[in-house]
Amino acid sequence: MDFKEIRKKYSWVGFCFFIFGLATELSSIAMKLCLGEHLKSLRENSWAVYGLGLAPIWIVGFPICVLLASRAPSVKPEEHEIKLKYMIQFYIIIYFLMMSANILGTILISITESSLGITIENSTIELIQKQKLLPSFIFTVILGPICEEMAYRKVLIDKLGQYNKRYAILLSGIMFGLFHTNLHQFFYATMIGFVFAYIYSISGRIRYSIILHMTFNFINGFIPMMLIKHMDIEAIEELSGQSTSDPEVMEKLMEFVSNPAFALFLLYMFVLFVVWIAGLILFIMNVKRMRVNDTNSPLPIGAGRSVAFINVGMILFTVLMVVITVIEIVSLNL
């Protein structure tokens, strides 16, 4: 198979994910138009919020993507077991990479906001934090990771890993980051996407990346949300700028810091800091060993870079995701 044929395979897969994104957006718009005046009342129900947000993605867009992608051959990675101790190490490394990417992303976003005079909000996270705990747990800790790993690891790696595992891993991470259409999430989602793709590529078992994804969302998303819901954050925000010499202000402040949820949150943050340090150490110790064998890949490293990344399908997907992201930023600043 020559490079021309391989480029067509990459382009077709990219086009399938472009249709995935396009169908998702169009069905989302159509649903909002159909619901009309009922949409506002539905947004007060957490089950409806998640259902309305995820149905266009996983009930409309993804099935169309899978149907179209079935035209391209699939080759599942060779299966290998990953022991529990290594799964724990992977989680620790993932957390280190996520936090590092998040810090870098925050800095870049701050520079962009200052330069352009705009505000780039993390609207997705803000929306999730307003929802009730049970639906948040089911959709963000259980269903979300399963669907996302099936789409951006299982489908992508099975379709593209046979030509070059390294490029498939890179595309999986980048496309996963772009899929969030949120600049705040792009940086860390891309980074953890690389690791999840690597894990599936070396194990051939999607359950490993699903389990790690669920664990990550639970520890780093659900737990802090649960603790914050038991703290009166709004009351503290109201005290901003007020003198602590005021007895009433001091009373409210002491009430906040004496809340057990606040103590647990501080302990939680300390534990995560220790995990971050451990992740840094583990990453330095193992980074050279975290490689995939592309010796016999039909698409060689270097020469095949343009084949994998610069093709019509992948460009269409990238442009669509960037446009959606920009539209969201602009709409929030109008």
In short:
The protein has 334 residues and is mostly helical.
Could you explain how this protein is built, in words?
With 334 residues, the protein is mostly helical. Helix content is 78%, strand content 0%. It has helices at 3-35, 38-42, 46-69, 84-116, 123-129, 133-160, 165-179, 183-203, 206-229, 233-238, 247-257, 260-286, 305-309, 312-333. The protein is globular and about 75 Å long.
How would you state the average pLDDT, rounded?
Answer: 91
Helix content: over 70%
The computed structural class is: mainly alpha
Report the strand count.
Answer: 0
Instruction: Give start-end ranges of low-pLDDT stretches.
Output: none
Largest sheet: none
Counted by DSSP, the helix tally is 14
Fraction in beta strands: under 5%
Give the SSE string. Answer: HHHHHHHHHHHHHH
Distance between the termini: 51 Å
Rg calculated over all Cα atoms: 22 Å
What does the overall shape look like?
A: globular
SSE layout and pairing:
Layout: H1 3-35, H2 38-42, H3 46-69, H4 84-116, H5 123-129, H6 133-160, H7 165-179, H8 183-203, H9 206-229, H10 233-238, H11 247-257, H12 260-286, H13 305-309, H14 312-333
Helix pairs in contact: 1-3, 1-14, 3-6, 4-8, 4-9, 4-12, 6-7, 6-8, 6-9, 7-8, 8-9
What distinguishing features does this structure have?
0% strand, mainly alpha
